[in-house]
Specification:
351 residues; alpha/beta; 2 domains; TAXI family TRAP transporter solute-binding subunit; TRAP_TAXI
């Protein structure tokens, strides 16, 4: 009898321990599910919260522009307004945000932190090819969506600075543009072509708006700005100080053209009231790019259609260049966003 009772007691204890172990395992699984951010349920909830249509595709987007004193920021705001007014896509909304401009916008798109961006077309080529600022880190999720306007390097100083050439910037306080901007990339190319390395001048990594204020206050001697022509900030600054546009010499232009995709151009004397003679400089294209991960083909098509069929609503001076006739400028050697490509094909804009 005792042996039977002992046997039953052992069986009951074993069964109880088994149930307890199962219960602990289930509790542990639930705790793990709550801690893991990448579960299917969590992803679906995040997609709904972020306006995602499917997977990583989104409908509520951010458009990266540039510093508040440059061309990108005010123009990007107007571009976003046009998109919001004319894109026909459920739950669509785009907000323009200030940023470090070209390189920064491309980097943020690559990380999924931004969906649309304004950029000089040359850093975009570097991003795709894993060169320049993107050495060894090619961006594979970005596509060209259209030309915006021609960008013109304008090196501004005051008449009393004694600076008449790029070489004269040695030892000066020089604003070269924010980190990650097309302005800074081009400024360094020009300075290096003039034989000036880091340390030969005092570099200020300012956006053009902030730099203009410091030129006015006498804290900065000169500023580089890859801007639209004419630029309203330069116009406003010329009302406070007597200005000069520094002309880039042929030797420097030859070196820059040999080592980049920038091309020389002439800033005509009638570009600004204060100019008495023309000045030589370099130019490139400002373009719109979009994420091929987070902007679907259908939404990319709608964004491109809405922007280029309603660009006449943009009041900014550079908006005059945002046309279907110019839309492919700056597209060389860049992959097209599938949605933009479909629009270009429908409109007969591809060769």
């Amino acid at each position: 009898m005792k042996s039977k009772f002992s046997f039953l007691l052992v069986m009951l204890l074993t069964f109880g321990l088994f149930l307890a172990a199962c219960g602990e395992a289930e509790d542990g699984a639930d705790e793990g599910a709550e801690d893991a951010p990448d579960t299917e349920e969590t992803e679906d909830d995040a997609a709904e919260d972020d306006g995602e249509a499917a997977g990583d595709e989104m409908t509520r987007l951010q458009l990266g522009t540039g510093s508040t004193g440059g061309t990108y920021y005010p123009l990007g705001q107007e571009m976003a307004n046009v998109m919001n007014n004319h894109v026909e896509y459920e739950d669509f909304d785009v907000s323009s945000v200030s940023s470090g401009a070209s390189v920064d916008n491309l980097a943020q798109i690559s990380r999924g932190e931004m969906q649309l961006g304004m950029t000089v077309h040359l850093p975009a080529q570097d991003a795709v090819n894993g060169e320049g600022e993107f050495e060894g880190h090619a961006v594979e999720n970005v596509g060209f969506m259209g030309h915006i306007y021609p960008e013109v390097m304008q090196i501004v100083t005051t008449e009393g600075s004694g600076i008449e050439s790029v070489e004269d910037l040695e030892g000066a306080n020089v604003a070269i543009g924010p980190p990650g901007s097309g302005t800074q990339e081009a400024a360094r190319l020009i300075l290096e072509a003039a034989g000036l390395e880091d340390g030969d001048y005092n570099a200020y990594e300012e956006g053009f708006g902030d730099a203009a204020g410091q030129i006015q206050d006498g804290n900065i001697d000169a500023s580089f700005g890859l801007l639209g022509l004419p630029d309203s900030t330069i116009d406003e600054l010329s009302n406070q100080r007597d200005l000069r546009i520094i002309s880039i010499s042929d030797d420097i232009l030859d070196e820059v053209e040999a080592n980049s995709g920038y091309e020389r151009m002439e800033i005509e004397a009638d570009s600004y009231d204060f100019m008495e003679e023309s000045a030589m400089t370099v130019t490139a294209y400002a373009v719109l790019v979009g994420s091929t991960d987070q902007v679907s083909e259908e939404l990319g098509y709608e964004i491109t259609r809405a922007l280029y069929e309603n660009a006449d609503e943009i009041s900014h001076t550079q908006g005059q260049h945002t046309t279907k006739e110019n839309v492919m400028n700056g597209s060389d050697d860049l992959p097209l966003h599938p949605g933009a490509e479909r629009y270009f094909e429908e409109e007969g804009l591809l060769d």
